[in-house]
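Purpose: get a first structural picture of the assembly so the mutagenesis plan has something to point at.
Setup: two entries, given in the order below. No constraints added.
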Amino acid sequence: MTVENTEWMTLDNAALIYPVARNRNWTALFRVSCELKEDIDPDYLQLALERTIRRFPSFAQRLRHGVFWYYLERIDTIPRIQPDVANPCVRMDFKQDSGYMFRVRYYGRRIALEVFHVLSDGTGGMCFLKTLVAEYLKYRYGAMIPRSGDIKDCNCPSTTEEIEDSFLRFARNESLNRRESPSYRIKGAHTPHFMNIITGLVPVPDVKAVAAEYGGTVGEFLSAVLILSIDKLQRSRAHGRLKPVKVNVPVNLRQFYPSCTVRNFASYVNPGIEPRLGEYTLRETVKAVRSYIGYEVTEKRMNARFSTNVKSAKNGALRAAPRFLKTWVLKTVYLFVGDRYSSSTLSNLGKVELPPEMAQYVERLDFMLGPLHSNPVTCACIAYNGKICINFTRTIRETDVEREFFTTLVKLGIPVLIESNGGID
Amino acid sequence: MSYCVNCGVELAPSEPRCPLCGTEVVNPRKPWQAPERTPYPRTVEHIIRKVDRRYGALLAMFALLVPVLCTVLLDVLMTRSFSWSSYVVGACLCIFIWFLLPMLGGSRHSPYLYLLYDAIILFAFLFWICYRTVGIMTYLTLALPLAAVPVAFSYGFMPILLSRRLKGTLYVPAIAMFMLGCMCVVVELVLDLHLFDVFEPLWSLVVIVPCIVIGVMLILIEGKKNLKDRIRRRLFI
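Result (C-alpha cells, whole complex):
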C-alpha cells in the first residue's frame, strides 16, 4: 500500500524519549558511512540525495511541539549535503537546514549519513545510505543496481509498511519488569563537543575462528571482550565494592517480525558479569553473554520488553498530560535511569552484503554511534568485504577501554589495523 | 606498514602515533610522513549556542519598568513630587546600563565603550544621591574617588581578559586576584584619607595577602601541565 499522507506523523514508540532527553549539548545520533573507490562528486551526491529523500518520506520530517506530544511534520525543501568534519555526530541544530534531522556528509571517497534517532535506527539508516549510494552510482557511473530489500527503487513510491510504527503493530498485552542493578560507569576527563574515534579493522575469518574457539558468535565474543576490558578498567580504578559490568546490546526486532519499516524497530539487552564474584576469564564471559542473550533474545521476551513501553505510552493519564509536564518528568527519569544499567554500548549491524553491481564500487562500510547521554565510550561494528570495522567513539581523553579491547584481540592472534580522527589534541 | 611497539596493533599510514597509547611511530626504514589525505578532515565543527540574549534583555527591560512605574506613581501621589522614587529609577537605570545594554548591543560595540557607559551612569547616580543628601563635597572627596577605583581597575583588566594569548589559561584569574588585592588597598587609602587624613593600611592587608598567595598558586599550576590536567580530571563534573 502506497503512502498517501505524510503531512505529519507521530513519533514511533522508541523515538518518544529522544526529543525529551536531548539538551543544548547532546542529541542521540548515529552515523553510517560508505567509502567508494573514487572521490565523491558533490553535484551527483546532491542529485542522488534529492531523489532518495523523496523515496523516504519518514526522513523528510521536522520535529514539532504539540500540546501533548512531539510530532513530525513533513518538509518539502531539499536538504543540502555538507563537507565532513573531524568531529562527527556533534549535536544537531534543528533550526538549520529547514529542520532536517539527518545530514549527509562527504569527504574524499566517503559518503556519510548522520541520523537523529527520532527518525530511524541503524538498520533504517543503512537502508537509506544504501539507496543513496545506489542512486549516486547510477548517476555518476551509470551503474544499473538491482533494487530490492534494503536498496529501494526511487521511481516507486514508499509504502505505509515502510513508515509504520512496528512497535504498535506487534505489541501484545504482556509486559516485563525492566528493573536491573546499576552498572559500573566509565569516567574520565571530558572532551566537550569532540567525539574521539578509534577504528579497528579486523579480518572476519580470524575473529570467527577465535569466537568459535571460545564457544560464541562474533557478536557475543566482541561483547565479552568489551565487558572484560571495562572490568579491567574498573579493577584498576575502583577502591570500594565492584559494580556489575554490563554492555548495552541493541537487538534488531525485524528478525522476529515481518516488518519492513525504516523507522525505529529495535530493542536492547544488557549482558554482563558480576566482578565482585571474582575475576572472569574470557571463556567464562563469552559463556555468560551467550547464555544471557540466548535467554533474553527471544521473540517472547523481546515482545514483552517493548510492550512495556507501548503500554506506558498508551496510559490515559500520561497521554492527557501536557507535553511540558511529560518532558519534565521523562527528562528527570532519563537523567537518573538513562544509561545507568549499562557501562557502554556495543551495537552490531552484522554482515552487510551488496549486490555485485554495487559492491564493485564500494570499498568499505562504517557504523558508529554518537556520544551517549551519560556513558562516554561506545562501540559499533559492521562487517563488509571480509573485514569487521569496529568503531569506538568516546567523549573522554582516556583510551583505556579501547586499548585493552584491541590488545586483547592482538593477544588472541587477531591482526588489528588502527586508525583515528586524531583526537582532540 | 608500522606497528605500535606497545600495543601490537598495526597503524594506518595516517597515524603519527598510536591512538591507543600515544607511542610515536619510529620506523628507521621509513620515517613517518603525513599522508595526502587523513581518514577525517581537519575542520572541527563547533556548536554555536544561539541563546537569544536580545530577547531576554528586552523582557528584563519591561520587567524593570514595573518597579519604576509603581514607585514613581506612588511617590507622585503621596508626596506630590519626584523625590525618593528617583533612587529606584536611578538603580534600575544602572541595572539597565550595566547588564541589559551589552545584551541588547551584543558584540557589535567595543567592550571599552560599554565600560565607559557603566562609569558614566555610576558617577551620575552617585552624584544625584550625594546632591540630594550629603552634598557635593562628599561626592568629590569620597564617592567619586571610590567609584573611580573599580572603573580604573576594570579598564586595566579588560586587555588581559580580551587577550587571545592568555585566553583559557590560569594567568587571567591570577592577574584578577592580584588586581583585586591592589584595589582593596587603594579603597582603604581613599577611605583613610577622607576620614583620618592619614593612610594606615589594616583590613586591606588581610585581603591582599590571600589574593597574592592564590594568584601565585594559579601561576604555578598553569606552569605544570600534568598537574593542571590531573586537577581538571579530578574536578570534572
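The interface with chain A takes residues 4, 7-12, 14-15, 18-21, 37-50, 229, 232-233, 236 of chain B (CB under 8 Å).
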